[in-house]
Amino acid sequence: MSTSETGMSPMKVGPLRVAAFSALALVVGFFGITALLGGFSRLEIVEREAGPFAFAYRDLYGADFAQVGALSSEVAQQLERSGLAPIAPMAVFYGDSLEGRRPNEVGVLIDEEALARVAALDDPPKTRTIAQARSLTTSFPGTGAIAYMVGYFRAESVFGEHRDQRRYRREPLHVIVRSDRIDFVQPIVPN
Question: Is this structure's pTM higher than 0.90?
Fold first, then answer.
């Protein structure tokens, strides 16, 4: 039986309905992916001693997250070719680096004993030891690029609230990518 025989007209879907459904699907998808990545999980802040960290890195101006992964991999591969074993990717983000005042530092954690060997490489990355310090710490689940970005902004937000409540100064944010999580560490300095 055709629609002309029943007297019913075929269902017409207007462009407004398609646009509304598409927008709804995008919003639901965004919130679903964010939930899967831990975007709504509660980040617990613990004040504790963190470090020391032996760090091999290169400078990066700005906060282009795509460059962070590539630069960290470049440093790790250079060390591996020289027989050194990186422990974990790491970055130190400075709040004023976006204005070009100070570069971020992107590289890898290494053993303290490896610092001298890194300095002897051709075109070596910079090295330094970040001293042990009382710090704000938290962890974010996951290790992919999206988890890194979501975790970074979540950690910055909760650390900012915590710093404001306790009157701590904003310090560089240390980000360490472990096998199952991303650790965020920020030294505590009272105002």
Answer: no
Contact 186, 53 (CB under 8 A): no
Going residue by residue through the chain (191 aa), what tens digit of pLDDT does each one get? 555 555 555 556 677 777 777 777 777 666 655 555 555 567 899 999 999 999 999 999 876 778 999 999 999 999 999 999 999 999 999 876 555 678 999 999 999 999 999 999 999 999 999 999 999 999 998 888 888 888 998 999 999 999 999 999 999 999 999 999 999 999 999 98
Same domain, 36 and 92: no
Count how many domains the chain has.
2
Q: Do 173 and 101 belong to one domain?
A: yes
Residue matched to tokens 């060997």: 117
Peptide bond into 52 cis (omega under 30): yes
CB neighbour burial string for 84-94, b if at least 16 within 10 angstroms, e if fewer: bebbbbbbbbb
Structural domain range at position 36: 14-43
Residue 38 Rama label (left phi>0; alpha psi -120 to 50; beta): left
